[in-house]
């Protein structure tokens, strides 16, 4: 038995050496391809496609180049989804099995992982657009496990989709894992979670906290105010722009919860109707 173990260890060592050698060669070609992909990100139209193709000619493992092609495909098309899948596959091969295991939990913090992480997020969004919610959730779940620090903001989309799917225990666990988050998204998710778990009375304190955090969300969720014509590039906490960003994915969870929007409409009406507080005048000297 000891000899077998020794032989296995020696075989594994040779495989690791071969993988390390191959990884070094892959990285050399990938560096040139990645530079072209970055150029393509700054370009548009035919030039973008040409640069992406040139990047793939330099290295077919350039995940960002595949992602660029996917973003240019018709929205919701089978071609776009296939390209996103190819981007993820290319990124995983480029990183390699050794580094996939070594870097677990530290992805995005390591520069070489970012094209792969961008591809995973793009794939999840493409899956969701084609109503493949379960696979989209699973893709984001795996992405967040690779980078619990969540530089990409994956937790916001994942939480909204879990609420939409009715996966309340998992949604509650995810919410608790980032309990220090003070965003409108986390406050309104807390209110919806409390409503799903205990009803309107139990959820009232969480909703009051959410309204105090950002009062602009109910108007957008309930259709009383129109969503912006274009997605905000930036947002400020407590502002209408933050509310719009939350409602892009958060609205689906509210619509999926029976009675949630009616409860929100009734509970938010007094806050919306209340006149703004007038500044106090200084007493005359």
Automatic annotation (TrEMBL):
Entry keyword RNA-binding: no
Domain of life, source organism: Bacteria
Pfam families on file: ST7
Localization per Swiss-Prot or TrEMBL: Membrane
Alphabetic keyword roster: Membrane, Transmembrane, Transmembrane helix
Gene3D superfamilies (alphabetical): Tetratricopeptide repeat domain (1.25.40.10)
Primary location: membrane
Topological relation to the membrane, as annotated: Multi-pass membrane protein
Name recorded for this polypeptide: Tetratricopeptide repeat protein
């Amino acid at each position: 038995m000891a000899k077998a173990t020794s032989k296995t260890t020696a075989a594994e060592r040779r495989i690791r050496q071969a993988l390390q050698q191959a990884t070094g060669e892959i990285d050399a070609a990938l560096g040139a391809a990645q530079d072209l992909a970055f150029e393509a990100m700054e370009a548009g139209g035919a030039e973008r496609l040409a640069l992406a193709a040139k990047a793939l000619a330099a290295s077919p493992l350039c995940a960002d180049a595949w992602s660029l092609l996917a973003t240019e495909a018709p929205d919701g098309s089978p071609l776009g989804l296939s390209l996103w899948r190819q981007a993820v596959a290319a990124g995983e091969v480029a990183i390699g099995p050794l580094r996939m295991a070594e870097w677990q939990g530290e992805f995005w913090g390591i520069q070489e992982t970012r094209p792969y992480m961008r591809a995973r997020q793009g794939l999840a969004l493409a899956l969701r657009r084609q109503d493949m919610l379960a696979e989209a959730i699973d893709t984001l779940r795996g992405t967040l496990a690779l980078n619990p620090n969540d530089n990409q903001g994956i937790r916001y989309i994942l939480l909204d989709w879990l609420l939409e799917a009715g996966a309340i225990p998992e949604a509650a666990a995810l919410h608790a894992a980032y309990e220090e988050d003070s965003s409108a998204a986390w406050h309104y998710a807390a209110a919806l979670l409390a409503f799903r778990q205990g009803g309107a009375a139990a959820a009232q304190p969480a909703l009051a906290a959410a309204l105090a955090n950002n009062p602009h969300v109910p108007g957008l969720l309930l259709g009383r105010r129109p969503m912006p014509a274009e997605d905000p590039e930036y947002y400020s906490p407590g502002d209408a722009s933050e509310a719009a960003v939350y409602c892009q994915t958060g609205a689906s969870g509210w619509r999926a919860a029976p009675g949630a929007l009616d409860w929100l409409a009734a509970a938010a009406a007094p806050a919306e109707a209340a006149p703004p507080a007038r500044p106090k005048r200084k007493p005359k000297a």
